[in-house]
Write a structure and sequence with these properties.
Rossmann fold, 303 residues, 13 strands, cell membrane, alpha/beta, binds adenosine-5'-triphosphate, ABC_transporter-like_ATP-bd, 4-stranded antiparallel β-sheet, translocase, 6-stranded mixed β-sheet, 26% strand, Alpha-Beta Plaits
Amino acid sequence: MRARGLSKRLGGNLAVADVDLSLDRGEVLALLGPNGAGKTTTVEICEGFLRPDDGRVRVLGTDPFTQGNRLRPRIGVMPQGGGAYPGVRAGEMLRLLASCCATPLDPEWLLATLGLSEVRSTPYKRLSGGQQQRLSLACALVGRPELVFLDEPTAGMDAHARNLVWELITALRSDGVGVLLTTHLMEEAETLADRVVIVDHGRVLAAGSPTELTSGEERGRELRFTSRPGLDLELLLAALPEGCSAWESRPGHYLLRGDIDPQTISTVTAWCARHGVLADELRLGRRTLEDVFLDLTGRELRS
Ligand SMILES: Nc1ncnc2c1ncn2[C@@H]1O[C@H](COP(=O)(O)OP(=O)(O)OP(=O)(O)O)[C@@H](O)[C@H]1O
């Protein structure tokens, strides 16, 4: 899949602004961003449900909007919120879909893999939110798609169900399926994705593998901690070795970058002691995707 310069205006808002994406077979691409970032709109353009105002997208060699009939049998779509006739039973729905596909997966196998065997005879409306989500995923996969679009695939799931879904997505990748998923969970993007595209307000803020986004040799290590806002960093900076930088990334959140060794940590805690405050949540290591988002926008991903 290749998309270049996608833009879409919805209700006066620029929901998607000049977005580039690419996804190969056997690859997981995560669109990571907070609510309203434009993830669903971008995915719906790639699925062919929305026509972009600008830009071009090709999915499996087709234009998804004008050649949807050719494309649909080859892709799987798990929309946000799912949706089905309320009285239909889980197994019945999956078998019905399987009967429309040329070479379907075994519905019973899919139900078992997603932990749904025991609710195969339960009407859709009586399934929990997480079970409805998993059934929606099973429906997206039953036709053995070459490429799948998963919009917030684990939203509302408990940890056990989420792990089942993560394992299945990993297995899809091993089978050569391309997976485009949206998420606002950085753990999900970090665990599953080969490449992550961070979006906010419809725009791509950063793109790369989780390692590229979170490390980068030039950045060195990072030390983060929280404390009282507005601490005077002058004394700390003077005591730090050359090449270290320190700043308050947002009120009460302090960040040090550079060649951080045990002495640096001792300097930081001594500086805190001089201010009569505790260095809370002191954390040394590489950045998380959450940190990347915070550094780019000054906001938390979940906000
Ligand atoms: N049909 C619509 N009419 C007007 N504005 C819309 C419409 N659909 C979405 N928007 C707006 O477009 C922007 C992007 O929405 P979109 O649903 O693509 O974001 P998202 O990243 O998927 O968010 P979420 O995680 O909440 O689903 C938001 O500002 C949203 O309010």
